[in-house]
Write a structure and sequence with these properties.
This protein is of the alpha+beta class and 578 residues long. It is 19% helix and 29% strand. The strands form 4 sheets. An 11-stranded mixed β-sheet has the order 1-2-3-5-4-6-7-8-9-12-13, with helices on both faces. Strands 14, 15, 16, 18, 21, 23 and 24 form a 7-stranded antiparallel β-sheet that branches. It has a 4-stranded antiparallel β-sheet with strand order 17-22-19-20, with no helix packed on it. Helix 2 packs across helix 3.
Length: 578
């Protein structure tokens, strides 16, 4: 059915055939009257008529574009037996793009746009390189669903939001299955919050985690699959664009943010596709990184993220940049966008945007700052220090990690409402948090790029976790979290295969803190926090060495962190000369 609405022709409930015979439902918006139009495709599991793509359709049609907004497989109006996130998005995206290109109202040039899952589907189809796909602009999406959507790069499960997210998406599945429109009783255990709803504390602590898989078995059967496959490997590689960067041919504009759970998507997507796995570099990739969290910066009203407002410059509007991008690649207009440097980042602390020519920055000086203490770095009042001098013969620090009393999550890169900047002082007052703090800086220090912690440690357990957090301690005592990470000990050597430890033996761990762009100002201090939990962002390691998600026992572990001549624990900062 075609309707006329203020100069726009709307074709509703269009069934688009996929190669396997399943049809996916879409709405098509195009300027009224004759002619062919470059076409934009946006695909969503959240209901095509209830999210931003519908609003954006008005914007795009007013600028001479046709827009296809589609429900993904087994969602809302689309056919399909069982909803499986990510699994079919590559081929379904390919078929949808080529269908759109072949329509009489299309010029045959197609672009894709959208945020979050609507960006994730773009990364999935990118490796297929449909011939009619001329440009993409994923905003806040993941290139590796194993390492930044379901699990984290250090092997821990993204616990705080996964069960709640699966539940929130299950209403449509319940309707499709003819179940009671109200979800099961456990919905009452979910906290009411903006955006994705985190589990309440008692629900998040329930053991075993497979109890949630049992509850979700009818309405979200894929959740059990997540828990049953904690190791990386072939099971996950079909939904991993990182392994296909060299196959991407189309121009892509990657948009991400420093406090987004999917920060890795934009950074890895840009750098990986640009490099093309060692092949000839792609010159048609662009990157924009802002200071936001996840969801809410397509049309931001402030430049804030958590406690901190980064100033009026941070509150940008992406529509104009999207228009410049698609007008260039789909209409052939010289908008000047490819004359701009390929990288634009927001430098926190200075709170300014800056243009660069690559990522990571070629002028980076990777500088180790070493952990020091006299054996009592526990809490922010301990004797832990941090500086560029390698340690001598120093006493190690110890703490007890009790998984029944984990360190609470306070902001950061997560989808536990709210993400972003929060004072870390409450966590740093705990005895199971080691704090290593520099002297007040005499001059500013810019840290822009990937960050990692090299940690020498041992445990009384055969498996445990170690966490690290980079913070900016202000003169007024506020402790701003910059970035954090985690390593599950069984994955210290490889995410493909588990390897337990020998209790009491020291090991070298590498903790990936992803990346940032932040200037530590004079008078501020740099701090590194070391612990063994960040809950409920990450699931708790029970310290038993048995499969974590079927475990019902929690065992405290005594952790020892070394910083001496032979075991120099440190954080490696990507320092930018000024």
């Amino acid at each position: 059915m075609a309707d006329q609405i203020e100069g726009v022709t709307v074709d509703e409930n269009v069934m688009i055939p996929m190669r396997d015979g399943v049809s996916l439902q879409a709405d098509v918006y195009r300027p009224s009257g004759p002619g062919k139009f470059p076409t934009l495709v946006s695909r969503t599991p959240y209901g095509r008529q209830g999210l931003g793509p519908l609003v954006m359709a008005d914007y795009w049609t007013s600028h001479g574009y046709a827009v296809v907004t589609q429900d993904t497989r087994a969602r809302f109006g689309s056919e399909g037996d069982v909803y499986e996130p990510h699994v079919n998005e590559a081929v379904d995206g390919y078929d949808t793009i080529e269908w759109a290109a072949a329509q009489p109202w299309s010029t045959g040039s197609v672009g894709t746009y959208g945020q979050s899952y609507l960006a994730a589907v773009q990364y999935m189809v990118a490796g297929e390189s449909p011939p009619s796909l001329k440009a993409q602009m994923p905003v806040s999406g993941s290139t590796d669903f194993k390492q930044s959507w379901i699990y984290h790069s250090g092997g821990a499960f993204e616990h705080g939001w996964m069960a709640a997210y699966a539940t929130s998406k299950a209403r449509d599945t319940a309707r499709r299955l003819g179940l009671d429109p109200d979800l099961p009783d456990f919905e009452s255990e979910l906290a009411q919050a903006d955006g994705f709803r985190p589990l309440l504390d008692h629900s998040a602590r329930e053991m075993p985690m497979t109890a949630w898989a049992d509850r979700l078995s009818t309405i979200a059967p894929y959740f059990a699959d997540y828990l049953a496959n904690p190791d990386d490997g072939p099971h996950w590689w079909n939904i991993n664009l990182r392994r296909r960067f060299h196959e991407v041919n189309q121009p892509m504009y990657h948009v991400g943010s420093w406090y987004d759970i999917f920060e890795e998507g934009a950074l890895e997507g840009f750098s990986g596709i640009t490099a093309r796995g060692g092949e000839k570099a792609r010159p048609n990739q662009k990157l924009l990184m802002g200071p936001w969290g996840h969801i809410g910066y397509t049309v931001p009203t402030t430049g804030g993220c958590g406690d901190l407002d980064f100033g009026p410059n941070a509150a940008i509007e992406l529509k104009e940049e999207q228009l410049r991008w698609f007008d260039y690649w789909l209409k052939g207009e010289d908008t000047g966008i490819m004359d701009d440097p390929p990288v634009r980042i927001f430098v926190m602390g200075d709170n300014v945007w800056r243009e660069e020519h690559e990522w990571p920055l070629a002028r980076t000086v990777y500088t180790p700052w070493y952990l020091h203490s006299d054996g009592s770095a526990n809490t922010l009042d301990g004797d832990g220090t941090l500086n560029p001098e390698a340690p001598g013969n120093e006493r190690p620090d110890t703490f007890v990690y009790d998984p029944d009393d984990p360190v609470p999550t306070l902001g950061g890169n997560n989808l536990i409402t709210p993400p972003g900047v929060f004072d870390q002082t409450p966590a740093e007052q705990r005895g199971d948090v080691l704090c290593y703090t520099s002297e007040p800086l005499a001059e500013e220090l810019e840290v822009t790029g990937p960050i990692s912690v090299t940690l020498w440690a041992t445990s009384s357990a055969i498996d445990t976790d170690f966490t690290a957090k980079l913070c900016d301690v202000r003169p007024d005592g506020y402790v701003q979290n910059i970035q954090d990470g985690i390593i599950r000990a069984r994955y210290r050597n490889s995410l493909l295969e588990q390897e337990m430890m020998t209790p009491g033996q020291s090991y070298e761990f590498t903790i990936d803190l992803w990346a940032t762009s932040h200037v530590f100002k004079p008078g501020h201090r740099i701090r590194v926090d070391i612990s063994s939990s960040n809950f409920p962002h990450f699931d708790r390691n029970p310290n038993t060495g048995r499969p974590i998600h079927t475990e019902t026992e929690l065992v405290p572990a005594r952790q020892t962190v070394f910083h001496d001549v032979n075991r120099p624990s440190c954080i490696t900062l990507p320092v930018i000369p000024r």
